[in-house]
């Protein structure tokens, strides 16, 4: 029986400020052990941009602040998107080579162009402006009929509001796509910091997929999710 899972690895987990070497080493061990325990298991890992994306996007905004007033807003946003996409591809290239024995193909940069799953691990990165790596993860989960889509971020669960700004924010165990959409809004903003981006949210709701949002650095919890055991996190699913 095919056992394919998709893990969207947030850039804030890979490179919160600089590359988190200790996490990446532990992540490699966790994933390798998971694959070794069952030869039918396959994974699709989709990498975010993290600090490199934010740093380069911020530099672009500062340098071109006076130009942005004369440039079309959509062009300005697209430029930031392409910068962020480049960062996701660099992160994905690194992680692909951490799993070199399981990942024989190049990093996926266009999810619409791949149809076969070679090896046991696929690495994917950003695709095109207006689409985050969350969206890429949803497309690949749909294409390969993955039974689980896990979104690893720097929060343990989805909250009713931003806990950094609202002390009354409450963690949520389960939420519908409709209610989640109300939390994150419907506008795409390059580098927007939400548990799952609005464009991906809309498409995930359309295809009736479930997504698990969980703390990225809690690798014991990740293993419980992967092995269908009791876990901590938020399930976002159909109404």
Produce a short descriptive summary.
By secondary structure, this protein is an alpha/beta fold.
Q: How would you sum up this structure, described in words?
A:
About 40% of the residues lie in helices and about 15% in strands. With about 240 residues, the protein is of the alpha/beta class. It has a single domain, classed as 3-Layer(aba) Sandwich (Carbamate kinase). The strands form 2 sheets. A 7-stranded mixed beta sheet has the order 3-2-1-4-8-9-7, sandwiched between helices. The longest helix has 26 residues, at about 75-100. The mean pLDDT is about 90.
What is the level 1 CATH name? Alpha Beta
Distance between the termini: 29 Å
Helix content: 40-55%
Structural class: alpha/beta
Give a count of the beta strands, DSSP E runs of length 2 or more.
9
- How much strand? 15-25%
Low-pLDDT parts are none
Number of helices: 9
Mean pLDDT: 91
The CATH H-level superfamily is: Acetylglutamate kinase-like
Shape field = globular
Main sheet: strands, sense, barrel: 7 strands, mixed
CATH architecture: 3-Layer(aba) Sandwich
Going across the biggest sheet, name each strand in turn: 3-2-1-4-8-9-7
Provide the CATH topology.
Carbamate kinase
How many domains, in number, for the residues?
A: 1
Provide the succession of SSEs: EHHEHHHEHEEEEHHEHE
> Oligomerization state of this entry?
single chain
Key features?
42% helix, alpha/beta, single chain, 239 residues, 9 strands, two-stranded antiparallel ribbon, Carbamate kinase, seven-stranded mixed beta sheet
């Amino acid at each position: 029986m095919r056992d394919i899972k998709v893990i969207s690895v947030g850039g804030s987990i890979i490179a919160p400020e600089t590359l988190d070497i200790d996490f990446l080493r532990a992540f490699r061990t966790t994933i390798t052990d998971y694959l070794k325990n069952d030869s039918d298991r396959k994974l699709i890992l989709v990498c975010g941009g993290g600090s490199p994306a934010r740093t380069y996007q911020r530099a672009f905004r500062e340098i071109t602040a006076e130009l942005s007033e004369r440039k079309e807003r959509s062009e300005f946003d697209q430029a930031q998107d392409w910068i962020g996409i480049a960062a996701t591809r660099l992160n994905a290239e690194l992680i692909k080579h951490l799993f070199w024995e399981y990942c024989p193909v190049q990093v996926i940069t266009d999810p619409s162009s791949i149809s076969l799953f070679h090896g046991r691990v696929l690495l994917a990165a950003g695709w095109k402006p207006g689409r985050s790596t969350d969206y890429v993860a949803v497309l690949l989960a749909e294409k390969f009929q993955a039974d689980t889509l896990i979104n690893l971020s720097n929060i343990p669960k989805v909250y009713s509001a931003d806990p950094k700004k609202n002390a009354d924010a409450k963690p949520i165990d389960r939420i519908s796509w409709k209610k989640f959409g109300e939390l994150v809004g419907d506008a795409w903003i390059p580098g927007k910091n939400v548990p799952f981006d609005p464009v991906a949210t809309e498409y995930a709701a359309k295809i009736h997929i479930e997504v698990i949002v969980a703390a990225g650095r809690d690798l014991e919890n990740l293993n419980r999710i992967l092995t269908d055991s009791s876990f901590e996190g938020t399930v976002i699913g159909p109404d």
